[in-house]
Amino acid sequence: MTDQEHHFGTDHPIGVAVLGMGNVGTEVVRIIQEQAQDLRQRVGAPLMLRGVAVRRADVDRGIDPALLTTDAHALVARDDVDLVVEVMGGIDPARALIGAALTAGKSVVTANKALLADYTGELAAAAEHSRADLYFEAAVAGAIPVVRPLIQSLSGDRVNRVVGIVNGTTNFILSAMDETGADYHATLAEATRLGYAEADPTADVEGFDAAAKAAILASLAFHTRVTAADVYREGISRITSEDLETAAALGCTVKLLAICERVPAGPGEPGSAQGGKDRISVRVYPALIPRKHPLSSVNGAFNAVVVEAENAGRLMFYGQGAGGAPTASAVMGDVVMAARNKFFGGRAPGESVYAELPIAPIGDTPTRYHVNMKVADRTGVLQAVAGEFAKHGVSISTVRQEGQDTGVIESGPEAAAERNHAGPSSTPRRQGARLVVVTHHATESALADTVAALAELESVTSVTSVVRLEGTEE
Amino acid sequence: MTDQEHHFGTDHPIGVAVLGMGNVGTEVVRIIQEQAQDLRQRVGAPLMLRGVAVRRADVDRGIDPALLTTDAHALVARDDVDLVVEVMGGIDPARALIGAALTAGKSVVTANKALLADYTGELAAAAEHSRADLYFEAAVAGAIPVVRPLIQSLSGDRVNRVVGIVNGTTNFILSAMDETGADYHATLAEATRLGYAEADPTADVEGFDAAAKAAILASLAFHTRVTAADVYREGISRITSEDLETAAALGCTVKLLAICERVPAGPGEPGSAQGGKDRISVRVYPALIPRKHPLSSVNGAFNAVVVEAENAGRLMFYGQGAGGAPTASAVMGDVVMAARNKFFGGRAPGESVYAELPIAPIGDTPTRYHVNMKVADRTGVLQAVAGEFAKHGVSISTVRQEGQDTGVIESGPEAAAERNHAGPSSTPRRQGARLVVVTHHATESALADTVAALAELESVTSVTSVVRLEGTEE
């Protein structure tokens, strides 16, 4: 193996091109320049910044203007560029630029989750063909090392579950709603004002960003190619202050979770179409989690990822999930590793998708549910509601009933039976009440059928929200 | 680079020797055998178990007896062994066996913290010379990926601090003492009975195990060779139930911490003998930490490591720090990576010690202290004690005084002044009282001088304990 050492010679620099000079790119450029001596020692050869591709080159960005260019394609194609850092974001032109770099055998470090969630296969094939490196630690959970642990540290284990809070904007909003009791729209406005939400917050609040990260995490955890289209997705825009209030009453808070789960082939399924193979469920939605769950205390713009593996047990990784400097830290770790490979030979592990596990549809995925209803405040309502749950095979764990005006709690069949003495034809005594039902595990489809049936009941005014419950022992 | 791919051909197996078949070795052997198909896909070639070195080969260990050998040296030397997994522990013969494997160009995966803490330099030199790999994720914090994140993920950042709970035995004992109020010896006996402490618990309870891990973490974090002898070490055997009680009264708990810290060169020191270089402080001791600190909720046999880096900010890694299966998970991740390198070419990052930062002596390291005293229960005591602290330049943060019988709390100089009305010659009214002083930051040497002076005071019966306080914002 010694013949492949020192491809470049100890004084031959590794040429680096940076594409994009937003929050992350600015920090990457700063670190390359300020930490040059340390980086040289860690790589074995100097990193030399060849250029930075920007949209407008005539803006003062605090670096030598000769380094700036608007022609990203020409920069990537330069003979003296060995390594390309893509921190511009978006699908185009990032996809073509990364493809061109990899095809030319140049190493690529990217933080682009949206691109990876849809095009890892294409990019990994280009990297494989030319024996180039594709690194992307910064694409998931910012500074938190989670991509490398999944690819490398857990490569000798069997991952069963990855659950993460991987979007800082939504976590900031939900933490603030929980703390202040304010409603969603007011809290979003505040997050925008503070710079925690973008002017168009759709990608964050509707869960697209988290879904892209879930696709990447699931691909790595299960050695299966998972794209954003495979991820079931719900955002947080329908979460109300009432949801957080009823969650609190149950000792829970609400978090937007990215869940990647191995669904073991049941013992009765070996003859099924899937041939007894495990399936995987990948989903993003807001869910109640108990306050004693380790993810419940991850607040504000922080991220955390819990990994459960057969031998390792439960691991948790916690830190800053976004921001220029934290994301640049993850990018630079990849840059040093990619540059070392250029210098010493060796390669990043390529895409591993041999397992090809099928995706379990969301309708098959059992979770627990927290169902919030407005109901007529009269006797017999609880019986009628309980009957619909039972009819659809959804088992109820707890019920909480409040009179809208008085806040009286009526629980269990005894109280309902007592009221029934007034007779079935009794008229409503108040305008309405709230009924909160928490179920045991049920499939999405069974729950959807139950909710549809509940809406038909004369005594149910409306089903105001259905939010899942995760992280309980059951 | 393509010429160095596929050294072995896709059907040529990677031969593996396992040294030791205790808790970890048994799990490693099980995983290699049970997960053969997955491992083959992840490596690119099959892993073939060539043999397992044990002390006694005539014991049924549930595997093919032909695999067992008592001649570890012959096993390592076999031509068909490409990769050696050392999970026997101890310095000898592990040191010679690993040395022989590396010298022969074989990759080594080890979980041996005691060996690494003293001999990484020697082993890394052997690996470097023959271009072999030396991996050791399992040596620190069991299943928790922390070695690889420090070496790779944070290679483009500047680590300022690593603080960890890295010994499960002591954490189990301290957690149990905190919960039950039992004393140290009773709790140690219970831990031994439950299998959380070894028959001779010295390495754990006196902090030797944690110190070895601290040396490894500090070496990686600061790119400086740090050995166990460089680590200041105190164990938990002097921690009393009274310490935990007074800690609780301050909103704290007690944890055995491994602390690796960059001590920046002060602005006034550029002309000093150190030439203005940063220094590093590496130390292991029990310390009070506030209950709101993320490490305070790490209980029982769990481990956690907090890393603070300039750009990444604060990261935390949490999981199972010991046990057969969790440690084997970390070993197997390294095995897959080392085997991939054998197959595809490429090498693990070697030792990085270019920074050569000097070790700051413990006497120079400022921390806060929690000082517990038995004092005469009479007026003027607080003044005398406060005077000694002031005389040695140690600033007091809070004082808590309790009459031994009544539990009366007397705080601050006003209360003392009030009692002083009785005059300086007043006789003791009760047999004794307890005084707890928490200081601001002070050096070890200033504190030691203060404690010596306190012991000379007529009104101080004894200084019953001095425990550091870490993790406060100040």
From TrEMBL, chains A, B:
Reactions mediated catalytically: L-homoserine + NAD(+) = L-aspartate 4-semialdehyde + NADH + H(+); L-homoserine + NADP(+) = L-aspartate 4-semialdehyde + NADPH + H(+)
Cofactor requirements of the protein: a metal cation
Binding sites annotated in the UniProt record for NADPH: 113
One GO process term, biological-process aspect: threonine biosynthetic process
Keyword annotations: Amino-acid biosynthesis, Methionine biosynthesis, NADP, Oxidoreductase, Sodium, Threonine biosynthesis
Residue numbers annotated as active site: 213 (proton donor)
PROSITE patterns: ACT (PS51671), HOMOSER_DHGENASE (PS01042)
Residues bound to NADP(+): 19-26
Pathway(s) annotated for this protein in UniProt: Amino-acid biosynthesis; L-threonine biosynthesis; L-threonine from L-aspartate: step 3/5; Amino-acid biosynthesis; L-methionine biosynthesis via de novo pathway; L-homoserine from L-aspartate: step 3/3
EC class of the enzyme, as a word: oxidoreductase
Superkingdom as given in the UniProt entry: Bacteria
InterPro entries: ACT-like_dom_sf, ACT_dom, Asp/hSer_DH_NAD-bd, HDH, HDH_cat, HDH_CS, NAD(P)-bd_dom_sf
Pfam families xrefs: Homoserine_dh, NAD_binding_3
Binding site for L-homoserine: 198
NCBIfam families from the UniProt entry: PRK06349.1 (NF004976)
Similarity remark: Belongs to the homoserine dehydrogenase family.
Annotated protein name in UniProt: Homoserine dehydrogenase
